[in-house]
Amino acid sequence: MSASQIDAKEEFLSKLYDDYHYKIPKFQRPFSWTEEHFVDLIDDLTDAYDVGRDAHGTLLDETGELKKQTLDAYEPYFLGSIILNDGSDSGERSDIIDGQQRLTSLAILIAVLRDLVNDEPRANSLGGLIYEESDPIKGKSETVRLEIRERDRDFFDKHILTRGATEDAPDPSTGDSEPKQNILQAIQTFREELAEWQDEEYGDLGDFATYLTLRVVMVRISTNSLSSAFRLFNVTNARGMPLNNADLLKSENLSHIDDDDKREEYQRKWEDMEEEVGNEGLERFIGFMRHIIVKEKSQKSVYDEFKDRVFPEDNTFRGERFVDYLETVFDVHRHRIYNAELDAASYAEEVYYHNLVSLMRDFYPSDEWMVALIQFDAKFDDDSTLLSFVEQLERRLTVDWLTGSSNTGRYSRVYSLLREIEEASTPEDVLNLPMLNEKIVEESEAFENALDLSNFYRKGNYQWPKYILMRINGERFDNRNSKVEYGNNVTIEHILPQTPNNDYWLIRFDDEHWRDTWTDRMGNLVPLDGRKNYKVSNKPFTAKYEEYFKKKSDFPLVNELEEYDEWTPENLRERHERLKQEAKEIWLS
Question: What's the pTM value of the predicted model, to 2 decimals?
Answer without folding.
Answer: 0.69
